[in-house]
Amino acid sequence: MPMPADMHMHTPLCRHAVGEPVDYARRAVEIGLTEIGFSDHSPMPRDEFDNWRMFDRQLDEYVAKVQLAQKEFPQLTIRLALEVDYLPGHEDWIRQLAARHPWDYFIGSVHYVSDSWDIDNPAKLSEWKKRDAFEVWKIYFDRLTLAAASGLFEIIGHADLPKKFGIRPQQDCTPLYEKFLDAAAKTHCAIELNTAGLRKDCKEIYPCRDLLEIAFQKGVHITFGSDAHAPEEVGMDFEAAVELARSVGYTETCRFNQRQHESAWL
After folding, report:
1. 258, part of any domain
2. Is 227 a residue whose pLDDT tops 90?
3. Which pLDDT tens digit goes with each residue over 39-56?
4. SS3 string of the chain?
5. Domain limits at 228?
6. Which domain CATH number covers 79?
7. Per the domain annotation, does 1 fall within a domain?
8. How many domains does the chain have?
């Protein structure tokens, strides 16, 4: 059975990835994938918001790069998407982005627990020492729950991102998972199995088994993503991700075409 679609990968426009979309597509063909999706970090209303996303003026260029990959590799299904940061109050901006191109899906991600702290940024690792870990996780999951409930996204990205540096609260996070996943189930929003966590300090797929088990119990759909920032990372560790999904009970994955849900056997 073929590997599931890799629905999370980036481009150099985000300023922290290497390789053009055609290079990622070529790698996907080499390893036997039949479908991929580009979901680079979306612009913000202000270009100076941070330094790890494309500028607003580059959005058309991004689309053109993906379209070139589609033309060069017709044997490969290539989806056009964005990874969009969810921040309370930015909903209108996300709707504006959605109207600008015929996207296949949006991955909604939370990186910021305040206007200035992106919790996965290595340059701001010291910020963790100023906060209680559970407090940070609670703020994060509160925002992730709002993202899932918003109806603005087809997929929620790396659902337990705060574990990236191996910082985990001692308290039980199950109530945070439950609330988030109830919102995802209600809006039919999928969560991804993101293998990039295996390449980070936490050495674990996003999300953890405990969260994924609750997701399965609540009927939340799943997708798969390498979060590739280089061509060699396309499809990386998908065997482990599929094994995890199946061990929890999943037999199907999903993908999106023009923001419409499609199911596939896992």
Report:
1. yes
2. yes
3. 999 999 999 999 999 999
4. CCCCCECCECCHHHCCCCCCHHHHHHHHHHCCCCEEEEEEECCCCCCCCCCCCCCHHHHHHHHHHHHHHHHHCCCCEEEEEEEEECCCCCHHHHHHHHCCCCCCEEEEECCECCCCCECCCHHHHHHHHHCCHHHHHHHHHHHHHHHHHCCCCCEECCCCHHHCCCCCCCCCCHHHHHHHHHHHHHHCCEEEEEHHHHHCCCCCCECCHHHHHHHHHCCCCEEEECCECCHHHCCCCHHHHHHHHHHHCCCEEEEEECCEEEEEEC
5. 12-265
6. 3.20.20.140
7. no
8. 1
